[in-house]
Amino acid sequence: MKILVTGSAGFIGSTLAMRLLARGDHVIGIDNHNSYYDPALKEARLNRFCNHPTYTHLRIDLSDGQAIAACFDEHKPARVVNLAAQAGVRYSIQNPLAYIQSNILGFTHILEGCRHHGIEHLVYASTSSVYGANTAMPFSVHQNVDHPLSFYAATKKANELMAHTYSHLYALPTTGLRFFTVYGPWGRPDMALFKFTKAILANEPIQVYNYGQHRRDFTFVDDIVEGIVRVLDRPATPNPNWNSAAPDPGTSAAPWRVYNIGNNAPVELMDYIAALEQALGKRATIELLPLQAGDVPDTYADVSDLVEQFDYRPSTPVATGIARFVDWYLSFYTTAS
Question: Which listed residue (124, 131, 152, 312) is catalytic?
């Protein structure tokens, strides 16, 4: 199958591209290689598979409508996985326009490409951040999510709404996946695990927000990719029982769905740090700070729909996932230096 993967030099996108290539798919990868974090890491991820005979790489930006249209015209993918986005809760407070360009305008270009080329299924990244001010745990896709706490979360909720209109108007099957704190080898330097590891090894203090009272449903990247593949292979279908008088936020009369992918086992941030200390064989110096603007104290994924419909539940224990990250980090940065 020919599959378009956006964000293919990114953390999740590169891992997914390798998985799809390994099973025999043809992958067209799109990435703009921007400088939100070290582009050298993106190049290193890409170098693992860019010479694969069934991989094609395009260095273009989702906001370039002509380039995206040309990609669909030339390569004619059967299915699309949109993982390219401007990520980061805190950065969205500083630079909201970057999120409009990538997450709103760019996603519109992807939707238009799918609409005009008869795409069998569009799977796209959403986020646990859409739950915002919700406090009922675990978070369920059948809850209302109209109170985001960051502009990043607002743009990802907008993606879900935009996808719904295309599913309704053009019968385009779309599935949104709400990722819960993804971590693992080749991860993003702006994420806590990466920053904590770098600081501990440099004998610098780590900054721990909300005075360490966070709980997160940390999810290993391989588990995320397994979920993406399973969902991608089964295009969304309408819910025949959807009732407009009592609308279910997680399904629709259109071929549109959203799912949580999380470990379904939230971990105290201080326990997460303890697992990292164990893997590194080194203690952290901790600087406790208040909750940051846009952040939520806890995340906890209800993944029952994923279990029931795809016989799948993320399963990598946090201690195992952290150990794999540390092994990669030490190897990668020792080699790089």
Answer: 152
Q: Quickly count: other Cβ atoms within 10 Å of residue 307's Cβ.
A: 12
SS3 of residue 77 by DSSP: coil
> Rounded to whole angstroms, how far apart are CA atoms 38 and 7?
15
β-pairing, 215-216 vs 267-268, is antiparallel
In the block, which residue shows the tokens 């893997």?
Answer: 279
In DSSP notation, 116-136 reads HTT-SEEEEEEEGGGGTT--S
Residue among 294, 276, 295 at smallest CA distance from 286 = 276
Residue 63 DSSP one-character state: T
Residue pLDDT, tens place only, 226-250: 999 999 999 999 999 999 999 999 9
Reported pTM: 0.95
**152 given a catalytic annotation:** yes
Name the packing angle between helices 107-116 and 151-170 (round to 10°): 10
Q: Would you say how long the chain is, in residues?
A: 337
Phi/psi at 50 (5° precision): -65, -20
Task: List, for residues 127-157, the tens digit of each pLDDT value.
Answer: 999 999 998 989 999 999 999 999 999 999 9
Q: Are 164 and 249 in contact (CB under 8 A)?
A: no
